[in-house]
Amino acid sequence: MTAHDSTLHTSPFDAVAASPPRRRRRSSSSASATKRSPSPRILLSGAPDSKGGVQNITRKVIRKLEELGGHMEIVEVNESSEEETVVENALTRGATPEPQANGNGVANGVANGDAAKEKAKEVVKKIDWEIPRKLFHSSIGFFTIYLYVSQGTPVAVVRALWGAFCIILPLDFVRFRYPQFERLYERVVGFLMRDCERDQINGVVWYILGVNFALTAYPLDVATVAILILSWADTAASTIGRAWGRLTPPLPRRTPVLRLPLAPRKSLAGFIGASVTGALIAVGFWTLIAPVRPADMSFQFDLSSTSGCVALAALALWAGIVSGVAEALDLGSMDDNLTLPIISGGCLFGFFKVLNWIMS
């Protein structure tokens, strides 16, 4: 056999082996021509005609590979997978794939996470205004003014409050011991209670103790203003703080000079509300209401003189500071219904002592 004949009778496998290594080796090549590895399977979706260009190109590539000696199986499927559908829709619209409802995929997780963050930013915490409680709290102030202008005696008020105290306090201990009575109790007066008071002594108990202390220890006009500060300044601080507290910084932990402890959970807006209300209470009471009972006034403000106007301005400033600080004090577990009238009344009582000493 000549060299020319040898070349003509060379097998296809020998020709492939002799060719330059620039072509891709097929995955099924082995020493034995009769044994081949499992054929790779390529899934093609039965897409609409408008999307058949990709499949046509794929078929051409497969045919070309078969011409080179490879073997592949083409399996037609009718349904596209969920991921392929998302990608096709995105390519068709030229937009980002829509997140899937089942939460699978990175795109879906990122989209859902961003949506949740945006939703969280838009959600504003619902404010509990405690309207029934605040109405009851504020009504005590109007009742106090009525008793003052109607020449009511503080002794009678103190006795009535002690009588209420002797009823309310035992009821608290009973509701702590008997769950059935507790449910009945909260059904009747629960709308006046805070959630934290359901497992603690009722705030009315501390309210009565604070008011009775003021009426017993201080002059009548000072005690009346202390009760008004408890009734109205405390309510103003709570209401204004809930409405605009998020727009102002929280209070520092201590006052600048005396280093008194303040509650950092309270806001500057609430402090200003209590201070302004306390100043208005002091000025309004000693100029309009206190003269009804001149014998019970701790100081006679002569507004026709400069000294009287200066004294009234000093009283307004002092009462405002005392109201704001007393309402914002952090005294641990002590209830502000007890501490507010005692502290504010004591500070006002000391102010009049100093004022009378200066004016004498």
- The average pLDDT value, as a whole number, equals 79
Shape, please? elongated
Query: What number of domains?
Result: 2
Low-confidence stretches: 1-21, 23-37, 42-48, 75-80, 94-107
Cα end-to-end separation:
146 Å
The biggest sheet amounts to: 2 strands, parallel
**Count of DSSP E strands?**
2
Secondary-structure-derived class? mainly alpha
| Proportion of helical residues | 55-70%
Task: Please compute the radius of gyration using only Cα atoms.
Answer: 43 Å
Q: How do the strands line up in the largest sheet?
A: 1-2
Enumerate how many helices there are, as a single number: 13
Strand content: under 5%
What is the helix/strand order? HHEHEHHHHHHHHHH
List keywords for this structure.
360 residues, mainly alpha, 2 domains, two-stranded parallel sheet, 2 strands, 61% helix, transmembrane, transmembrane helix, membrane, Dgk1-like, Phosphatidate cytidylyltransferase
